[in-house]
TrEMBL record:
Keywords: Transferase
Pfam families: Acetyltransf_1
Keyword Transferase: yes
Name of the protein: N-acetyltransferase
Organism whose genome encodes this protein: Actinokineospora globicatena
Classification via PROSITE patterns: GNAT (PS51186)
SUPFAM superfamilies: Acyl-CoA N-acyltransferases (Nat)
Amino acid sequence: MAEVADLVVRQARSDEVRRVGALTVEAYRAVGYPGAGGGSGYAALLADAEARLRSAELLVAADREGCLVGTVTVALPGTPFAEISRAGELELRMLAVAAPARGRGVGELLVRAVIARARELGLERVVLCSPAGLTPAHRLYERLGFSRLPSRDWHPGPEVQLIAYTLDV
């Protein structure tokens, strides 16, 4: 597996959407995310990277050979993939890292790319939601300077509690 220094974060291409969708579903299943299993509506949403490419910014982390090792969706407020963002905010969604690449800094690389994108767009902050039990992701967000935003915590379903984070950029 390539090291982070050998990776590039870039916009996903249309010929990659199936691979991006599969990577996203597998990453969510691997952490036990409710609804990421086969046949659920959320699994279908995770798999539909083509819709994210059309309605948001879909970023990928790829090695020199083009192997995809991670992905993240970037949404502006009021767009189809925005859930908690408001004016002046960029929303980070569906961060996913392929199992063989976990623990190598791919997630951090992708989050930093979202922060850089918010700055490029002249926005004030980045916001995101994360499953309450996903403490490795929470540690990453907090290490990068994100703080909790409890006023935007929510429950998209009976089995899922999402907790919100924010970072002023």
